[in-house]
Amino acid sequence: MKPIVTLLASAGLALGSLAAVPAAAQVEGKIATADRTRTIIGTSALQNAFQQIETTYSAQIEQIRTKQQQRQDLLKPFDKNGDNEIDDAEYAQFEATPQFATLQTLDQELNALSNQVELARVFVVEQIAQQYLPALREVVQQQQIALVLNPGALAVPSQEADITQAIVTSLNTKVPSVGVVPPQGYQPSRAGVQLTQDIEQTLQVISLLRQQQAAQQQGQGQQQPANPQAPQGR
After folding, report:
1. What domain range includes position 172?
2. Would you give per-residue pLDDT tens digits along the chain (234 residues)?
3. How far is it, in rounded angstroms, from Cα 156 to Cα 138?
4. What's the total number of domains in the chain?
5. N or C: at which end does the chain have fewer Cβ atoms within 10 angstroms?
6. pTM for the full model?
7. Does the residue 224 lie in any domain?
């Protein structure tokens, strides 16, 4: 199946730290948990830089949205069952049309534009990530921690063991701001690309959760009956 709409992960997605991570196990000395993805999301440098990318690369982002709509318009007539997906049979029919060459050109242009925006995000993330271990070591030393684990390694939730926010505070001092325009010839590391993808996926989840919460609150507000007017005494 091929999606009609190619989603653009907006840099204006919900930003901030997540709550509650799993915690402590039986070890000798104090243990803690830290989530690198959440830590970097929580920094002022990333939040400000991702917002700045929206401005600096606004022309590319607008072109991406326009070309995505053009792509959707090209494919929509071949979506016979209206499920916003093009199955193999529908796509085979589309390949035989003159519009297929236009789609290929659009996809190439979309990839080139998206790569510019994505490269800027990876550049931002790598600048912050370079100081993650120094910030972690600083917090470990200050709090005399014997062992730091990834939250996913533990099953029992405990916010007391979570030092993510402490690392965020350290990173905000070490990396108050970062650039958003990569230098000529910049080549991101594979780890940097993966970390950026993890961050973007987490931001999408946060955004969806907040949208669901807002919808639930709106629904509850509509269902709640108005308070009847209290009778007035004589």
Report:
1. 2-181+188-213
2. 444 343 344 434 444 333 333 444 455 678 899 999 999 999 999 999 999 999 999 999 999 999 999 999 998 888 887 777 888 888 888 888 988 999 999 999 999 999 999 999 999 999 999 999 999 999 999 999 999 998 877 767 578 899 999 999 999 999 999 999 999 999 999 999 999 999 999 999 999 999 998 888 887 777 665 555 555 554
3. 26
4. 1
5. C
6. 0.77
7. no
